[in-house]
Amino acid sequence: MTPTSNNHHVNEDPINFSPLLSGTFSNSRKDQKRAKAISDAIDKTLRADKERKEKEGGIKLLILGPSETGKTTVLKQLKLLYGRKGLDSERQTYRRVVHLNAMKAILALAEGLEQAHIPLEYPKNEEHLETVLRLEATLKRYSITSIGFTNPAIPRKITDAKAETDMFVEMVPAIKALWADAGIQQTYRTCTQIAIQDSAKYFLDEIDRIAEHDYIPTDDDILQARVRTLAVSEHIFNIDNVTYRIYDVGGQKSLRKYWAPYFDDVDAIIFMAALSAFDQPCEDDPRLNRLQDALALFNSIVNHKLFDQTSIILFLNKIDIFQRKLEEGSSQVSKFFPEYRGVNDYFSTTVFFQYRFMQQCKDLQKQVYTHFTHATDTNQMRVIVVAVNAIIQRLNLRSSGLL
Ligand SMILES: Nc1nc2c(ncn2[C@@H]2O[C@H](COP(=O)(O)OP(=O)(O)OP(=O)(O)O)[C@@H](O)[C@H]2O)c(=O)[nH]1
Ligand SMILES: [Mg+2]
């Protein structure tokens, strides 16, 4: 079944009450008639809304969690695994996202190199460095959250696609020269605190391919591409003969207030946190550790009274990056979580983090199903989606008294 998407703009009212608010009503017969007509219209809208929900039925599932934890990536995997067209309808538009992601990545590295006073390997690359640093002002204009796009995850502020592509093509020699420079490579390896996207290496390694004039993003490119979600969007999938209504939300702090209108009648929640973020500060609050923010947010969701009967599934995501960080020895868990006294290996640290999440749950009877995930890996997600579907089905049957 094809997934359908509805964009719920964050300031959108589900019902338009404006006629009621637009005038006062006297007791005249004409006004009474008008008031009744409006009241009937509202009843009709509410009835239609209720009927639509009943007809659609199925399971209402929210994907929640802080920003950059992989929520939209999971949705892309669902489209690939269960959508008739996969990611085809978005492929062309992602070309621009990929180009912008690559430019942002090299800009972040160039800035990091300057801040850390790391010298370039080849002084002749100085010219390229300046070209890239000049990108800052331009890239702000072409912010990844404001490109024209038909994907509901991306708001529509139309910019000039050709101008973006031209800009990218002009930048390619500078990007290639800098990415090959040992100074930039050292910045990439050692400056773990710079705000660089996880997909930076993937796109910079692939620069020749993505710069081809007839380049079309592959599924993996789309899974790696990063676009902030601003508006809540609804997607319908049929998984193993069960209809799911899935909501993807924006995780930035300023956007969390728009989640609440979707909290009624939720059957299941996938809460996502990025384990790899244990040593990173929040983008919108640099004093706060990202994983601490995730724990606090999980606390407010798992103990929320509206989610008493909701199945909670926890995805501790980005285990590939987490594992790499531990293996490289570049970050110690105990430095960021002083209460952790174990060794810095994958097994002990994941047990610790899972325990920290479970500790947030005040109701000791509440089951939380945890998965350690690598959301950009389609093979792993295929297995996990089947497991999650089985759990949700079982819980659903149990709560309806059929099991
Ligand atoms: N290496 C790796 N990258 C991942 C993983 N999951 C997601 N990503 C990447 O992380 C970036 C952010 O993922 P998104 O899915 O956009 O994050 P989000 O939670 O939707 O973020 P908001 O929309 O801002 O709330 C993307 O570039 C993804 O490709 C993972 O498990 N491993
Ligand atoms: Mg998103």
What does this structure look like?
This protein is α/β, with parallel strands linked by helices and 403 residues long. The chain folds into 2 domains: 58-67 and 229-398, 3-Layer(aba) Sandwich (Rossmann fold); 88-224, GI Alpha 1, domain 2-like. It has helices at residues 18-21, 29-56, 71-82, 91-115, 126-133, 135-141, 161-179, 182-190, 200-205, 207-211, 219-224, 290-302, 319-328, 333-336, 346-359, 378-399; strands at residues 4-8, 59-64, 232-239, 242-248, 268-274, 311-317, 368-372. The protein has a 7-stranded mixed sheet with strand order 1-3-4-2-5-6-7, with helices on both faces. Strand 5 (268-274), helix 12 (290-302) and strand 6 form a beta-alpha-beta unit. The structure holds guanosine-5'-triphosphate and magnesium ion. Guanosine-5'-triphosphate binds next to helix 3, helix 11 and helix 13. GTP binds at residues 68-73, 198-199, 223-229, 248-252, 317-320, 375. This is Guanine nucleotide-binding protein subunit alpha. Keywords: GTP-binding, Magnesium, Metal-binding, Nucleotide-binding, Transducer.
